Every structure is written in C-alpha cells, then in structure tokens.
Amino acid sequence: MAGGFGMVEAHLRKKRVLLVDDEVELAHMVEAILAGSGFAHVALAASGGEALSLIDAARRAKEPFQLFVLDVMMPGMDGFELLSRIRERPEHASTPALFLTAKDAPTDRVSGLALGADDYVAKPFLPQELVLRIAAVLRRCYAQESPLLELDASTVNFDTAEVLRTDGETAVLTAKEHEILGVLARNIGRIVTIDALCEACWGTSFNYENSLMAHIRRLREKIEENPSAPTSLVTVKGLGYKLNAKRQA
Fold it and tell me: pTM surpassing 0.85?
C-alpha cells in the first residue's frame, strides 16, 4: 500500500502490534498491509495459547504490545476468551484491541465490545478501511506523546530525564524513577495500582512493593514542592498512585 503512510501518524506506526488469527494466509496478508502502512513491529500468533506466550515474553522483555488485532473464530480458545485472558494482565487492562472476524452478527459485536474491544471489523474488508480503523483506534488511545510534563511545582523532560523545579533547582531522574514516572504519565488522572506499577517496571509484583515505595518517595522529593503533602504524585489509599498534571505539552 504505497499511500498507507499518510493515513497513520509516525508516532502511531511505532506501536507494537500482535495479530492473532489461525488462518495463516490471511494473517500474513494483514501483516503485509500493516507493513505497507509503516508498522514496523507486528508479531503473529496462530492460536490463543501462542498469543499469551508472546504477550508474557514481551512483558519480560519490557516491550509490551500496544495493540491487539484478534480473530474471533479460532479452535480451542476463541478471540473472546483470549481478550478476557489478556485483560486479566494488569499491563493490558486498557490496551486497545480490535476484532477482525467473519463472525459479524449484532450479538457478536455486542459481546466483543462488552469485553473491552475498541472496534470490530468484519471480513472481508478493504485494506484501506482496515488501516483507517486501526489508525482511529490508536489515535483515540495514544494521543501525540510529548517529552514535557508540567506539574504543580516542576516540569519533567522525559527526553533528558531532568526535572526543572519552579524554585529554579534542577534534579535528574534515575532510570527506575524515569520508568515509574513514565507509566504514571501515560495514565494521567487515573489510578495505577501498586501491582500494575511493579509489573510494568520490574516484570513482577512479587516482593517489590517496598522498592516501589522508596522510589515514589525519592520522586516526590524531586517533583513536589512539599514531598510530605504531594499534589502531583498522590497516593490513593489501598489502591495505588495517581499522577495529576497541568498539561503534557
């Protein structure tokens, strides 16, 4: 698809996509359509079990998938069950998903959307339509990402890992602080559970809660005017943390 690049913004074409379909020929055709539209990171799975294995491997490598394109009618684990299993993983509770399937009855669409799918594309489809629908889903879920994050008492530059405070002082983020703050910044205004933060930053939630709390404390010392009474990186008791930001410019 020579004209595909113009349909999808550059920052969206970098997203990692997992395509799951037991029809190998069709899967390779969709892969070629996406590659022709500039998507450089597309992985294929022929079953739900294979998909879950790839998802877990990507998590361990700290390169999680950012879009799922799932067939519904697969032997063994169908697409509906697969999406339910994906949603059980904290890092993918809200990762966009699109069903691509010949099973197009209204009740099937409702079932798919009720599971948290973002769109439902019926086979057969036009390649251009598929790219446009995928682009629309990504655009809704991933606004243009900026390196600058403006907080109450500081501005964070993710490109340089620097924090410029309103009192004129500058602080530098460690690699783990940068990673934790990045996860929170991708979920501005939403609660991120302790387990989800640990899973995203260490690959497991087991035995890392104390480490997370220590990093949060040091982060507050760098970004907050009063670390003991934070206004930007706040604790939601019994759940986790939430980042409040003025804007991401």
Answer: no
CA–CA separation, 34 and 134 (whole Å): 9
91 and 200 in contact (C-beta within 8 Å)? yes
Measured distance CA(221)–CA(21) in Å, rounded: 48
Which residue in 150, 160, 159 sits closest to 223, CA to CA? Answer: 150
Cα–Cα distance measured from residue 154 to residue 120, given in angstroms and rounded to the nearest whole number: 42
Any residues with CB less than 8 A from the CB of 32 and at least 6 apart, and which? none
**Angle CA 45–114–83, to nearest 5:** 20
Alpha-carbon gap, residue 108 to 19, rounded angstroms:
19
User: Dihedral of CA 216/221/223/225: which sign?
Assistant: positive
Burial label, 207 (beta-carbon count in 10 A; 0-12, 13-18, 19+): exposed
Reply yes or no: is the peptide bond before residue 96 cis, omega within 30 of 0: no
Q: Check: CB of residue 56 under 8 Å from CB of residue 84.
A: no
DSSP code for 247 = B
User: What is the tens place of the pLDDT at every residue in 108-125?
Assistant: 666 666 667 888 888 888
Digit-coded pLDDT (tens) for 209-233: 999 999 999 999 999 999 999 999 9
CA distance 237 to 235: 6
